[in-house]
Design goal:
The structure is a homodimer of 392-residue chains. Chain A is of the alpha/beta class. Chain A is 45% helix and 15% strand. Chain A has helices at residues 7-11, 16-23, 44-57, 59-62, 72-84, 100-112, 127-135, 152-161, 184-197, 220-224, 252-266, 271-282, 285-312, 336-346, 375-390, and strands at 30-31, 95-98, 118-123, 139-146, 149-150, 165-170, 201-204, 229-234, 246-249, 317-318, 326-330, 348-349, 351-352, 365-369.
Chain lengths: 392, 392
């Protein structure tokens, strides 16, 4: 058959990161390239008991198709979680459960984007979002960020120059890949701009509960509400990536569209994992798990920062994130795409920074992950990187 | 905020069936409108044990992100299942696990359809497919079917008249909603036409394992292979709808595109439910479950057919399916959309046939489900329908 694919499918390219993650799983490699939580920290035995309980107690419900919006007890729990984060006045119709927050991104692209529509993203930005938006023909307008998040003065300029922007997409807290957090002042400025130009903000928030230092900042949602902000959450980093569960909070009118889009995407997310997540939270296990995660990730981050100071300080600078999963390393004058060829010889993997720019316009950064590798692997990996950088 | 949605989202409408299913869940109602399997037949206790086992034994793997293509043991199991159905010579790269077969439909739309592209569907056709394809701007060309499936003489005519058709979408076995099965002769004719006009066939096959009468027919995939056929399967009817697991078999080139599309849709399907499904099958429980399902559904179908003969024979005709979940009732001269207003008074729900036509061009059919209601409910529901029809 001579397959006649859609334009979007013809344009889609195999992600190099996927290939990179595949090779870096081989023996002898140390991978700082992943973006995964460490499943060894999950309390498997307790979760196993809950899994059994849920199937016995919720048998028919957990094994049947559920509502597209998500199962009721979990949606109620989500409202409670959001209220704890000071996003108040939300009702059930403001929330939909998604098959991971990746589906949230896909649904937002589906309901907002006509081919060629302009959107604003940070530079760098989350790769999965760039992929989801690309699939629907988005045209990216990028705004640089620093350790305090998106540069609001530049955001204003771009908004002035581009009147038909569909939305502003941000990862305000513990940015992926850049590690930084949008400051309170810039949060307010961003929301003022959103209001002034009537452009909604998507607040992608996978990491805010993994803060191991400093003070919590209010979410954009809690400041401006659903009339301006659409917030994406996920259980992937705070319970399990294997559940494939996230959620979206937004205006009722918008959630209605998301429900329609989701219905044609996968009808509903698995009822079984929804009940599991809900029980895990209700038994207080998520809070316990988060304590373990924060203690452990902090240790690994400290190890990574110390190793960077020891092995890489002559050729690189880096962020020191107060939470999340990533350190963002700048390597002035060194092309990290090219360097990766040499990294293969040393069997150490990172993600070249260019992957996080829609037009690959930056070549002197790399993203390092500290949540999955052990402290030993972090130290050894950075030592190998140091050797690479010293001769680059 | 003045939300500016995409054209596809602006055009999407709330499914009336959703509303209908909501009201028909109220006390006193008898619903023959659903399309769900009966979860009471699932061996919950055994499944609960497996759930516990999987989390303990596969802990880290089952709770982590998995490969976009699906977890390896399940993909191997799927190849074995397909080989049992005589789809041979398949390799791992011919199969991808999907979040229900609804996602398979969405991914196919994503990788094949530019807005305005023509596709051929049966009239009537599966509602979820019509929704998924609509979302990507499909233009539907319909070909009528009878109890032996799509009318191949008319298919030829439509193919001759429309040269740029992207694919032919069929539910060949125990059609939803029409109940019938594509005969062997027409299977061969359909595939000859597919070859002659170089148009791939999507074989959506949720029901073939629920045959309680007659002989199995070869799947289109087993006759013509992946160069012509893309096959969708699902665990929703043969294990549990709450797992949200299906699969797609196709040419490697096509599966590669589906993997890319899925990556941006939801990264991967839940590893947990994939391991669960795999263990359920490996322990032989799926085969046991299918025996129970077939025995029970046959009884309910027989009850439905007898009740139709008793209460409705003066004003209606119907199919007698050899498997699956549905009976398709023709009501000459009676508008089933309008009749539904009266059905509300009697508290009996069916799905009006117009829902299964892309342009709602038929008004004298209804779909009845016999898998979820008990025999008592089937008898009582049809009796209420009979009263309605007698005064229509």
């Amino acid at each position: 058959m001579n397959w006649k694919f859609s334009e979007r499918a013809e344009n889609a390219k195999t992600s190099e990161i996927r290939e990179l993650l595949k090779i870096s799983g081989a023996p002898g490699w140390i991978s700082l390239a992943g973006g995964y939580p460490d499943p060894a920290l999950i309390p498997c035995e307790q979760l196993a008991e809950i899994a059994k309980e849920v199937v016995v107690n919720q048998g028919r419900k957990s094994l049947q198709y559920g509502a597209t919006e998500g199962v009721l007890p979990l949606r109620e729990t989500l409202l409670r979680i959001e209220a704890e984060g000071n996003a108040n006045n939300l009702e059930l119709d403001n929330v939909i459960v998604t098959t991971g927050s990746q589906q949230g991104l896909d649904l937002l692209a589906k309901i907002f984007l006509n081919p060629g529509d302009k959107i604003i993203v940070e530079a760098p930005s989350y790769l999965g979002a760039l992929q989801a938006f690309s699939f629907y023909g988005a045209k990216f307008i990028t705004v640089p960020l620093d350790e305090n998040g998106i540069k609001t003065d530049l955001l204003r300029k771009k908004l002035k120059r581009n009147r038909k922007v569909k939305f502003i997409y941000l990862v305000p807290t513990f940015h992926n890949p850049a590690g930084g957090t949008l400051s309170l002042e810039r949060r307010k400025e961003t929301l003022e701009l959103s209001q002034e130009f009537e452009i909604p903000v998507i607040e992608d928030d996978p990491y805010s509960k993994i803060r191991f230092e400093g003070n919590n900042l209010p979410s954009l949602l809690s400041i401006a509400g659903t009339e301006q902000v659409i917030k994406l959450g996920t259980f992937s980093k705070i319970i399990s990536g294997g559940f494939r569960l996230g959620w979206m909070v937004g205006a009722k009118e918008l959630i209605k569209k998301a429900v329609l889009a989701k219905q044609s995407s996968d009808l509903c997310s698995p009822a079984l994992t929804q009940y599991l997540a809900d029980e895990f939270i209700k038994k207080g296990l998520m809070e316990d798990y988060l304590k373990v995660v924060k203690r452990e990730y902090r240790k690994r981050r400290d190890t990574m920062i110390q190793a960077l100071e020891k092995h890489c300080s002559k050729r690189a600078k880096w962020t020191k994130p107060e939470g999340g999963l990533f350190v963002w390393v700048e390597t002035p004058g060194i092309d990290t795409d090219k360097l990766f060829e040499k990294a293969k010889e040393k069997k150490v993997a990172y993600v070249p920074g260019s992957a996080f720019y829609p037009y690959r316009e930056d070549r002197c950064h790399m993203r390092l992950n500290f949540s999955l590798p052990s402290c030993y692997e972090v130290e050894e990996g950075i030592s190998r990187l140091g050797e690479l950088l010293s001769v680059a």
